[in-house]
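TL;DR need structure tokens for one chain.
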Amino acid sequence: MKYLNHKYMDYDCIYLNSNEFGFLQLSVFHNVVDTPIEGAEVTIYKISYSGLYNEKAEGRRVGQYTTDKQGYTPKIELPVLNELLPGEHYYYITIRADGFNNAFIMNVQVYSNILTSYRVNLIHYGYSDVEFNFMIQPTRTEMHNPTHQHNLDSRRP
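>> reply
TL;DR here they are.
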């Protein structure tokens, strides 16, 4: 990978080998009392989009993990998959725990030899009328121009 002399990477000059692996780890906590949730079920899917406007998608489960007493999954090794690679494939994660509303993470990015981590705060039943939470990773267009008003990514509402 090529890095610039400052802390930001030039996305146009990075070429990643799809045979490489990166790492993913989640921590799951109660959103009100900030305590770890043991036994939360974390399922990772590989989503493949198709169609002229990416209007179709298929998902295949690539792994299922359970959080420990500290609320953490093990460090999960996954093939590199991110928006810098060609194709219409992304990781998608579901988080479920007894007594809590579900959470979903869309467009998860996994980079070569890098640990990507997420802290997920689940809402206990009865604390809110919210039934589930989505975390959506921004696309490269949104990161470079956050005030852009046009929807250039057909996968997003």
